[in-house]
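Interim report, section 4.2 (structural modelling).
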Amino acid sequence: MPFTPKPHAALLIVGHGSTENPDSSAPYFDHADEIRRQGAFGEVHCCFWKEEPSMREAPYMIDADEVYVVPDFISEGYFTQEVIPRELELDGPTTRRAGKTWHYTLPVGVHPSMTGLLLRRAHDVAPFADPAETTLFIVGHGTGLNQNSTKAIKDQVAQIKASGAGYAEVLDAYMEEQPFIADWDKLATTPNVVVVPFFIADGLHSYQDIPVLLGIEAEPGEAASKREVFRHNPHALRGKTLYYSSAIGTERHLADVILDQVADFDAKQS
Amino acid sequence: MKLAEQLSRAVSGGVRRIGQISIQPSGDGFTLRHIDDENADPALLETRDEAAAAREIATWADDGHYRFTKGELSLKRGWQLRLGSAAELHEALDAFYPAAAGLWFAKQADRLEVQHLRDKLNRQTGMYRFARNISDDGAQRLVREVCGPGHCCVKKILWQIDADTPLDDSEATRFDGVVGDINHAAAIPLLCREACNHFVAETRKAAKAEHEAAGG
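Predicted structure of the assembly:
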């Protein structure tokens, strides 16, 4: 559904960011640029946990009295439920403070339209692999901090299975909890395997750590921003043909999911 | 008044600098350069015309390191950025020095909220929770060893250890947020309203070292 522009409101995209390399924040700025280009909001800003501007500095950049805060995170969890509300001093879906109204939406990763993005990415990375002979892995970090962080991935796996995309298997897997992505060749029974990292950015996890777990590389390589090109697919590995995608958040259409989350927020509140 | 209008008015009133950026009014717009390129031959500079280029220019230092904190004294030279409006000026400056203009205007209007170090450390969670164990002496030492132009950060520190404990006098705490030799009325100072993530990370390391030294 086309987004009804909000010329009198500001959009604040919240990301994690990194002190190590700019790849972690690049997608957030790209999404902001895309939304600015569309003219969907009067103002579009980004803020971060690990980079500048911080969440506490962000209000000083904003003119508008109405602000939509969208966590550009893949799941509900520690950051969306604890860190962001604390740092932005939000006390519910809508917070009124010092003349401004702050609307806090759900994170992009839990929106149903993410399913279409994952399927598009899986197809783009392996356009000639027959889905009937292909296992699609959606990979997350897995963490003890908050069990919800895996829920978004399990939900997407269920929706992809129900979508009729025709993959022989659709599986969730994680870096640090079972089922481990390092065991991809044992978990998959098909000759082709497509792996899509369910992360926003090609940061350390998707660009450096997961390739080691998959066996594409023996040790973590350089950051994405330090390389000329993305890795070449496919990889003939462990008796299978492996296709590895960049992080789902680098998909340009994630900007549309941000707007979808804002529209859903408004629909729920009205 | 909108931030872009405030910026435009500040430049009309003579403001020409923020951090390592020189701001020159040109026609209806503005031209930004590195302060050391202020008088350079434009033919020798790479000219860009879109505010979004500011992020690209500000990302890497000349030696190839990532400038994750933008108050770092390492902005690249060799470019000029021509901007057609005050709104573009605001967008570009927020990429070079995130929120800096807004922080300064808030300070002038006496509505800038400063967060002292203990408050900042006490709201850290996860792996950074341990940072709150730093001693006052340890925190004072870190300010001398991490902050200020001697360590490449050119923000004026506004915070204290806590409401009753000011920072010790040092080069870092004396720095006023204005780079180079210029009339201070012609500059927007860079303000540090709370300790940055780099400082928190260093605090955590120092707190661990204190803990281990105490036999913990």
